Amino acid sequence: MSNHTAQRRTWADLGRNGALRQAFRSPDPRYGYNPVSVRELLTRLDARAGIGTTLSVVVQVATALPLLLVTKNSVAEQALDGTVQLAFAATDCAAAGSDLTGMGSTVRAVNGGLELTGAKRWIVNAITADKALVLARYAPGRQFTSFTLLLVDLNQQGVLRQATDTAAFDGSGVGDLVFDRVRLDGTAALGGRGRGLALFARQLAGERLASGLWAQAMTARVLASTVTYLRNRPTAEGMLWDNLAVRHRVAALVIAHQRLRALADHLCRPSFEPAAMRTSIAHSAVIKAAGARTLDHVLGECAQLMGADGFNRGSIQDLRREAAMFGIAGGTTSTMYDVIADHIDELLPVSQPQAVAR
After folding, report:
1. 177 forms bridges with which residues in the sheet?
2. pTM for this prediction
């Protein structure tokens, strides 16, 4: 079975067993999905599927599906059943990944319909998806209203798929999408024309939270497997786990993981306060940045503890290379720092100092 076949089968199985619908039962308006159910889903996937296959699911559950549901598009029901696979195409060949307002992909009105031209790069599920949500320029300028989100059938004339030349993310279907005057009807514009960036911004908190939840699940798994390795790795004085310095290094990693877990617990807890909705972007930036940093630290330390064995095929050094995406995809860690700094008064409420009575 090819990895692409396995990836599509995983999505179909999640639809068949109801896991996808469970992820959107009683959704939290801050994220567009049920964070507790998505957390459980990502933990199970991380334990049994490769990072590429899990990435394929994350993009759909955390971004594409919520946008289809909020715009009441009928394709969402097919995706929830696992019979249609989705891609989300935002990063553009004409601009840096983080510069969405500089994109060159354009959509224009033609003979009562729409015509899409341009190219998207490093798109998860580009090779395997049936349909893609494509962010395209509708008008000149960098204003929010200059962009439209389109639902595009990737099997129609004018669409070219090109696999990305990488050995990483096997099973993710990552690649480029090229659109050569692709004809669409007026209903392809999700939420109406000019609302693309507004819809995307609405889902940013959900996308970033999912990244943090997945990082927490992966950190726990790697730590557990590393402890098992250390307990079974003999040395002249016994097992490697018996070394006090090794035990202390692992204990410090567990503390880092527990901090990330506590943050995930807090953000997954339901909140009906209006302030929670306002601060969801800030808090989700915190967990995305914390997840990327914690995962990088834990993987680096565990790789050192495993020594030469960490370079075995499919071992932790391979995982470290792929896990670097947590600090890049969906917004770099530096970008998250900017968001956090912009919301510092919400995240760090400090009362005005009072004069000391004399």
Report:
1. 120, 161
2. 0.93
